[in-house]
Amino acid sequence: MILFEYQRISKHYREQTTIRDFSLAVEQGERIVLFGPSGCGKTTLLRMLAGFAVPDKGTILIAGKVAARDGKNVLTPEERNLGMVFQDLALWPHLTVYGNLEFGMKAKGIPPAERRRRMDEMLKLLKIERYSSAKPHQLSGGEQQRVALARALVMQPLALLMDEPLSSLDEELNLHLRREIVRLQQALKFTLLYVTHSRSEAKEIGTRLIFLEKRGS
Amino acid sequence: MNVRRTVFWAIACLLVGLGLSPLVDIFAQSLFVNGRFSLDLFHNLFASPQTRHLLITSLSLAGLVTLLSLLVGLPLGILLGKSDVPGRPLLITLFTIPLLIPPYVQAVAWFHLLGRQGWVSRWFGGGDWNAGSDFLFSLGGCAWILFGCFMPILMLLTIAFIRSVNPRLEEAALLAANWPRVLSRITLPLILPGIILGMLLIFLLSLGEFGVPLFLRTNVFPVETFTQFSAYYDFGAAAAAAVPLALIALVAIFAEGLFVEKKTVHVRIGSGHGSGIRMELGESGKWVSAVMWIFAFTTVFMPLLALLGESAAIQAWRTAIAQGWDSILRSLVFAAIAASLLTLLGFLTGYLIHVQGLGSWRFLDTLTILLFALPSTVIGIGMIGVWNRPFTNFVYASPIILILGYVIQYWVLPSRITLAALSRIPPSMEEAAQVMGVSWTKRITGIVVPLLRRDLGVAWLVAYIFSLRDTGISMLVYPPGMDPLTVRIFTLMANGEPAMIAALCVLLVIVSLVPFGTIQWVGKDNGGT
Question: Which of B257, B274, B291 is the last residue of a domain?
């Protein structure tokens, strides 16, 4: 079953065509990696799927519904039911790990018992249960990555989008977390759209790799 | 329409409605005589030789204050923002103090220092020394006092813009050139929009100031407007006299907008680069610091000490408290209400501008700056025209009119503080909640406001100080029996005891400086100024 689809997407940035006629259909449970050099438009493609950028031309479909079409977002980011791990992780510094995980569920009106069940399960799966009352700044880089992953997955999104989440980590931790992401995906069977500029990272994580080239207008 | 867009439209309508209505009214009032369209008021105004004199005096005063502020404020800002001169934080605090005190209170303080019966006269001439008084009651004296009041604007903007410059740009240049060359070729061109904005604000604030010129008998446009209004109650003539000031402010702000628009590519206030690499002064740092301390002592402390000395008698304080107690309380309450409203509206406006939530975001930003730079006499007289009607009497005859005036004039302060704070927060903080399906209101209350809580606290305090020290709007629109402290002092000055007036001025200085001390404490706690 196709979960989301880019249909002939074009995007211009500062009078230059960054993306031209890009099409891609992603099946449920796939691990897709978009990789390529800086400025090739991979992050823009991810942000268009999330609803933070609008394609100038073309259509984006999510679970069969039109999410964006020809310069207009039909669905807002709030309505797309996607999870996202940002490059800077964007953990809320004023909330504890538990608070970070609970915020989205609470706002969506999920009952407390269900929230607790999901959070406990996710913290255990990511092996960060002992940090539940810690604030993000009290955690190491790897632990923060896990919290960001847990925060996105606890919402049970249709797909998880990851924008170069490991780029700021040292090589050893980077290698370790790549395997963790694959293990987690295999356990939870979520669909993954992963953006990186690293070929080795792409090879290790993806079941399908999309290489994007940088071209002039 | 979703909640976010509804709130944005409500804020825009409120800002445009409240802010532009006094301006529109003042233009309309000046164009109608006895209900008929007429240019007579302008004809009378511009045909009068006095107008030319007023215009020359007003522009000379504003130009002189701006020039003095540039000559002193810019080097001070560079040295305090970029060099390792000892005692920087304390010196910044000291030089900022005059900005927080109503200008006319400082005029009173200088009067007690340099006037005929002032402290210097008593020390040097046994009461016969007139040079100080002659200087004070001249254009130069008026410019000197306003320079002391407004120079901190240029100094603070220079420091803020210097801190927002990416230090790598300076470090790269330092590999090939010395500091003076780096400052002149790299730093100064990058902070030029801040310097121009500072000069413009000082020029317009000096042009619109009426308390100091009125006290020192320097006849300028705002004094003329105020006199036409309060002495002759000639509303049309007052409006016509206010129009040139409004026009100058309008032209200047839009010209600055066009210029700065092209120059703000590299610099954003509050982008958090810190001071980067510091210019080392070595041994001469101590001397530079000493000169600054002497200057601060002479221009900031001496007048305040003279004021304190004048009010030394216990009886003066008893009378001051008895005569001003109700006004002090009113000032505190009005300022607190205005500050709370300003924080809410300023936060939403700053957020709207930051996310460019409406197509008109740039216009709204410029409008808030214009309202701050407009002479208070223009806003005050315009507000009277708008609200002094039978069906709006509940506003006009109550403290609501005062609070509205403060909100209109000082809207830019919390808006700009919010804007600076938001530029430090990555957009991903809010996007992370948005992608989870969290509504805008919950993102604002659960993520944005908690992340900005300290900045919003500072915004509240800044709005509070400016509302508390306001004189111009308060003088024009205060309802009967509801005068705040600034107005009470001004009224009592006509026939009150000088010692009692000085005591009331000291009280006003104290209530203005307590929140400033709080900001300093919060800033220190927050790791910045």
Answer: B274
